[in-house]
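If you are new to this repository, start here. Below is one unmodified record pulled from the training split, so you can see the exact layout before writing a loader.
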Amino acid sequence: MIVTACSSSATSIGHAADLVKDGKADIMVTGGSNASLILKKF
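And here is the target side for that same chain:
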């Protein structure tokens, strides 16, 4: 299983920080979540 939630969250936080730093935004709300979904066959 490949989990990408952590890297996606870090990317969105970094992008938001750049937007604030460059003055393109005053405030940003970012984050991410992870849901491990396993389909079981019965």
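Two things worth knowing about this chain: Residues 12 and 30 are 6 Å apart (CA to CA). The two ends are 20 Å apart (CA to CA).
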